[in-house]
Amino acid sequence: MDVTERYEFPYPECDPPLVKDASLIAQFQDLAQAVNDAVDDVVDAAERDLIQPPAARLAIAVLPVATTANLATPFFDVQVFSSNWGIFSALDVVEGCLRVQTPGWYLVGCHALVSSATAAVLPMVRLVVNGTAASSWSAVGGNYGVSNSRLAALSAVPLNLAENDLVQMQIQHRAPASPAWDYRPHLWAVRMVADS
Length: 196
Fold this sequence. Notes:
The chain is mostly beta strands.
């Protein structure tokens, strides 16, 4: 039996002149089954990657987190949600971050609501992969809710992530003299394209 080059679909073979062969029916059945399996694979991939893309979101259980440092790296301990497609060990209790299981292109975002007792609330956020900055700092957060609170955010940064990459965020508070401040962060990611 011959097969196509790219997908190796089987198809009936015969040498001219045409000779009737009972095995042709079995060969056509093999072809139909191979095409059916290929279509099932495409439908499964569409369901996985387009309709329910792999995603995860992390938060912190006890809020707010207080500090006087100018730079904070949140330690996430709550999995708000995670898809079940095996792209993340979404909550790594040792690292407190997202650990990538499946390489590919991801949209990654984060935000932090930052409050301070002083009026000089100047927070920015950025993404970090394996301890190295993976994005620029966001713009200084805009006023949000009550006075002396600002929300700094990065909504969708494309990152090409490898297996076991650790994705974290950092918050920088640029207020002078390191006043006491607190933060409420979230970190999330959605896979857009898996590496093949």
